[in-house]
């Protein structure tokens, strides 16, 4: 049994994964605030998960943890502001409790690994996370590709319209200012629990401002898809994150934007961009599953000794 956890700002999603990749059990619980509470959340989630799988926590062979923020050496998370954590060595905190290898990874990269497995587990896949911000992760032949300094896939702050809205990074017209849930909510400025969905509902009702924001989202996501394909030539771009919960309401607009952009260019048409983009299935535990797979990478492989003669 491999255990994976997606530790988010409001909830923690945990799965137990069998050797063949099947999910044996899944639990969710609220995430505590601050280093001690986050650690306790993980410990309790693992115990609850093991019980749901009919096992003991110590039966796990590995634990993988996906978390916001920057991750150092597969063990320590830093600058996880959504968790109230400035620096926390999760591997050191969790390993003594269960006595199994623990590996920590950034949540988007963990989700990329999970999305790759859910996609079919072959070729090269880019996972585009459309949440409060926008970022991507790459997986090729089952392995994450981080780049020279670990920043591969940070497409959210690539400017696609120098005259566009001001982004929090100081540039204008970044992909994130068009397609990030936080930026859309800020520009909408009308509150609500699900502001991006509210924008789509208002656009359906004919609101001009909402229609513009919805079109901007499609423009931003389509631009990100083009960038990911043109720079890495991935087999597929899988869309996930909170904004992707809009499902076909969003995907149909992105596909239309991609098709419109290919009308004047035979080269762009040859890329078949619209055919390479897909949605992560609703409710998929991609980040927790990916964390479980990444966690198992830390388990030493036993070599069989073969005697000859």
TrEMBL record:
InterPro entries, sorted: ATPase_NBD, ROK
Gene3D superfamilies: 3.30.420.40
Domain of life: Bacteria
PANTHER family referenced in this protein's UniProt entry, alphabetically: N-ACETYLMANNOSAMINE KINASE, ROK (REPRESSOR, ORF, KINASE) FAMILY
Family: Belongs to the ROK (NagC/XylR) family.
Protein name listed in UniProt: ROK family protein
């Amino acid at each position: 049994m491999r255990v994976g956890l997606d530790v988010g700002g409001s909830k923690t999603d945990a799965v137990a994964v069998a050797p063949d990749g099947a999910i044996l059990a899944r639990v969710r619980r609220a995430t505590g605030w601050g280093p001690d509470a986050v650690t306790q959340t993980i410990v309790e989630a693992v115990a609850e998960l093991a019980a749901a799988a009919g096992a003991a926590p110590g039966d796990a062979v590995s634990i993988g943890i996906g978390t916001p923020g920057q991750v150092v050496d597969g063990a320590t998370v830093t600058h996880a502001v959504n968790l109230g954590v400035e620096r926390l060595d999760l591997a050191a905190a969790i390993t003594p409790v269960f006595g199994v290898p623990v590996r920590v990874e950034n949540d988007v990269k963990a989700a990329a690994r999970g999305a790759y497995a859910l996609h079919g587990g072959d070729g090269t896949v880019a996972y585009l996370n459309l949440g409060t911000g926008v970022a991507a992760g790459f997986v090729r032949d089952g392995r994450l590709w981080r780049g020279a300094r670990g920043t591969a896939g940070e497409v959210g702050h690539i400017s696609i319209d120098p005259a566009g809205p001001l982004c929090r990074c100081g540039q204008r017209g970044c992909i994130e200012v068009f397609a990030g849930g936080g930026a859309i909510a800020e520009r909408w400025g009308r509150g609500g629990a699900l502001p991006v969905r509210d924008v789509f509902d208002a656009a359906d009702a004919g609101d001009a401002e909402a229609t513009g924001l919805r079109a901007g989202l499609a423009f931003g996501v389509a631009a990100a898809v083009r960038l990911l394909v043109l720079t890495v030539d991935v087999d597929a771009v899988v869309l996930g994150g909170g904004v992707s919960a809009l499902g076909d309401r969003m995907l149909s607009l992105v596909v239309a934007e991609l098709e419109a952009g290919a009308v004047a260019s035979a080269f762009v048409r040859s890329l078949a961009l619209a055919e390479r983009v897909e949605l992560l299935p609703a409710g998929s535990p991609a980040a927790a599953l990916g964390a479980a797979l990444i966690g198992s990478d830390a388990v030493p492989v036993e070599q069989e000794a073969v005697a000859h003669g």
